[in-house]
Amino acid sequence: MAKFERHVFICTNERDESAARPSCLPEGSKKLKGAFKDALKDAGLKNRVRANESGCLDQCEHGPVVVVYPDAVWYGFVKAKDVEEIVTEHLVHGRPVERLRLAEGCLNTEACPHRKGGKQK
Ligand code: FES
Ligand SMILES: [Zn+2]
Questions:
Q1: CB distance 60 to ligand 1 below 6 Å
Q2: What is the pLDDT of residues 66-91, one digit of tens each?
Q3: Lower CB count within 10 Å: N or C terminus of the chain?
Q4: pLDDT tens per residue, range 36-72
Q5: Which domains does the chain have, with CATH numbers?
Q6: Rounded to the nearest whole angstrom, what is the distance from the C-alpha of residue 25 to the centroid of ligand 1?
Q7: DSSP class of 46
Q8: 89 C-alpha vs ligand 1 centroid, how far in Å?
Q9: Nearest CA among 89, 77, 88, 72 for reference residue 32
């Protein structure tokens, strides 16, 4: 079997409600893995792109968070209804879905407005 060309990591970390940071599972990430698997199969990518659940990806204020490697394209606030578009546009045609990408100012920086108590979309 050919090697996987890409991996889609879907954070399914869950924190207690009282934790200092939010987490992706309560925001609905559990549904995403099955949705990615189905969409990848439908697109004929089952043997080339792998959808994996992951632990915390440290972008917790933007859940559900998904990252595609080796592209290093980060998506935030992903809903099951967005999965088909990510698969078709990004994983089939190589065009990341800009409307779902996390802004540079959100990645690994204290300056992220969501970390300062900004309301999540
Ligand atoms: S809990 Fe999902 S990125 Fe941290
Ligand atoms: Zn942010």
A1: yes
A2: 999 999 999 999 999 999 999 999 99
A3: N
A4: 999 999 999 999 999 999 999 999 999 999 999 999 9
A5: 6-116 (3.40.30.10)
A6: 8
A7: T
A8: 24
A9: 77
